[in-house]
Amino acid sequence: MTVEEKIAHIQAVSMEEARAEGNEIISAYKAALEKVFEDHKREAVRQSETRVRAESTNARQQKNQAMAKAQLDLKRKQGKVQQELKDKLFAEAEELVREFMKTADYDAFLVKCIRSALDFAAGEEMTLYINPSDADKKERLERETGTALTVSAEDFTGGMRAVLRGRNILIDHSFKTALANEYDKFVFSGGDDIG
Q1: Does this model's pTM top 0.70?
Q2: DSSP letters along 38-84, please?
Q3: Using one digit for the tens of pLDDT, what is the confidence trace for 35-85?
Q4: What's the distance, Cα to Cα, between the start and end of the chain in Å?
Q5: Distance (Å, rounded) from C-alpha 169 to C-alpha 151?
Q6: Nearest-angstrom CA–CA distance, 138 and 166
Q7: How confident is the model at residue 189 (pLDDT cuts 50, 70, 90)?
Q8: Closest Cα partner for 86 from 193, 184, 17, 195?
Q9: CA-CA-CA-CA torsion sign (172, 175, 178, 184)
């Protein structure tokens, strides 16, 4: 082998070794980069899943808050409408009471209430009151019941009241009290279940 062939052979072997070493370095670097890439990809997926969970939780909370607010608004509106209807209903009831007070049945009702109060008192001293609007009926009611009546200074919308001072008892058959008691107890039933 000539010197030139030897040089060419050494050169070829050196180049072969350099290529192999270079390929090995490139493969190692490529493997390291792929590992960094895979780690980065896993971390990015983990972060995106965490973010999706957090955003889902946040969206659920916002939806729940919006639903709670809507339900509260609906209940307020329902309460307002029910109050308006209740007021209208009791205004109509008061009008019916005023119409009833113009009838003979009302006069009979007064007599019945006065006699009931007299029976309850059993001879004990008592003051019987009729409404100011019934002042024109006073003498006739006194004749029918055989007892003295007092026209009240307070308008209690009709009916009668009696006071037994000895036992500190008020017998209240006034329409004002009856309507107020019914107004306080009155509740619309049904329709409360918003869900």
Answers
A1: no
A2: HHHHHHHHHHHHHHHHHHHHHHHHHHHHHHHHHHHHHHHHHHHHHHH
A3: 888 989 999 999 999 999 999 999 999 999 999 999 999 999 988 999 999
A4: 99
A5: 19
A6: 25
A7: confident
A8: 184
A9: negative
